Amino acid sequence: MNIKSLLLGSAAALAAVSGAQAADAIVAAEPEPLEYVRVCDAFGTGYFYIPGTETCLKIGGYVRVQVDGRSDSDVVGSALVSDGAGGLVEVATGQNGGYRTNTRAQLVVEAKNDTEFGTLASKITARANTNGSSSDFYLEESYLQLGGLRVGYFYNYFDNGLPGETVLSDGGPFDSVYGLGGDTLNNSIRYTYDAGTFSVYGQVDAFDSQDGWKTDEAGNDDEIGINGVITGKFGGVTLDFFAGYDFDSENAALASTLTAEIGPGSLGVFAAYSFGANRYFDASEWTIGAEYAIKVTDKFSIAPGVQYWDNIVLASDGDFDGGDAWRAGITADYKITTGLSAKATINYTDVDAGQFGDDDKWDGFLRLQRSF
Fold first, then answer.
1. Is the pLDDT of residue 307 over 60?
2. Which of 102, 136, 205, 303 has the fewest CB atoms within 10 Å, counting from its CB?
3. Domains of the chain
4. In terms of pLDDT, which residue wins out, 111 or 221?
């Protein structure tokens, strides 16, 4: 009898424990439905909706590996040095020939959405370079835009250029950094009116100063420029006209670019005129250059080009003081496969720098670039 009671009690205890464990069992929650990324085709290819929003995002960029080469050059720039009597004299500067390697990575993020005031857009460009001896990481063109109004850090007209690498729209052969003249990237505000075949924009630039502050004490309170561009498209021809004024130097610059589909390729002509030293263009008093981009096959194209500069010596008073130069070369582009391309260029420049003497120079590069 005692044994029977013990067995019944044990069974009851086991049942109670089992019931308690069943009540405490963890039940896996049902997975919530996933929201797949939707393609946004309202602003072109490559955009997708940020989940849960109506904002379209696009991520792109490139990785570039490049080898540059150049010959010796005695006249590539000028500098003001002491004359030993308390004054300054302008002397020519040169550079040794050789080669260098550089790897660059660039990442671009763009966001757009429609509003009652037009398209709201923003762009962030991050870039990093390494040339074997140093490296840098910095913010490139980055801005916000609402309708036709753009505010931020972006390029001006002189960075547009032509398809090849011969015509230098942003500099000249007698610049302190050899062919990279002008002030093309600044904090600016621009308004664009675009009517399709006709567009016009006006822009105000805050030029970079030594410490960023525009003050009377620093003497750089006038480091402001204004410029505007009128563009017209007529079938296969596009023509624009640029005018800019630098309040600090109180000088202006004019420029124009024409592109036209002719025969098997596209002709591009660039011309500029400077009234004196200014932040937009001061490589010479005037210049004209042309390139013809020929599409040989679907993957291969070449672009021969030539450019001439007149009055290339910039005196210390801001006026041009003689000399001229010309440059000729060719650029080849080859599309290896989707997203991967190669570019090569070689150019010859001849400089007659007046009191600084005569000189010539070869330069070029070979580039491999993966874009996405």
1. yes
2. 136
3. 35-371 (2.40.160.10)
4. 111
